[in-house]
Amino acid sequence: MSKSSYVAASLVSIGLAFLPNASSAAVIQTSQELLSVCPALSSGTGCAEGATEYLDAAQPSNAQIISLVTSIASTADTPQVPKPICLDAAQGIRILAGGVSNAGQRQQILAIANDLCKGSATAAIPALVGSTFNNGNGYYRLKMLTAEGLYKYSKIVLVSRNYYFEIGTIPNPFSSTISADIILPQDGFVKMILIDSYGKIVFSENRKLFKGLNKSSYRGLESLSSGAYYILFEYNGSQIQKKITKIN
Questions:
Q1: pTM above the 0.90 mark?
Q2: Domains in the chain: ranges and CATH
């Protein structure tokens, strides 16, 4: 081999040693890195692989995964995103579901993935994020009809939902059972007291209820005389009173 050929071959070898190797590509380690490839709006694929790398490298919490799922879903499930890219994003969400420790939450994420490219992912997101993860906050999207007759989805928005002690619907009159929608800001005991028109307590029950909406039924009231009653609910020092009528 001539000296010039040897030098050229050596330079080529040195150059090849510094060429980037696909096997040494950067591993996705942060949520922002994952969101840059999922949905894969430029390449068309990559969400599933990125989600796998992210779970292995970051070991994210349930809340972090939920935040990613809502971001990916809100971007992917729009009319402007081609369906193959949306389906790739759905597969990434399925993989992210595997990193959630709570079985119920995991099933809700899978429901989002399965419905993602059908325009119905919005229905699953409030159930997943609003009731499970964010202390009463809810995530929602608006489904809007454009002037051209096409559906368009808004970005996911956070709606704060703070509970207060309230008594909702009570069917009136009642016969043998009183049913009440009781809303609480926190878990606690609620005492129901039924008072007749003479001021006598004819029924009372103290039961533990939970934050949010409780549908409670009080039975065994068929022996009471027909007429007007006052129903009183006591919770954490607060009282709500309503008038109710008994029929036979």
A1: no
A2: 26-159 (no CATH), 166-246 (2.60.40.1930)
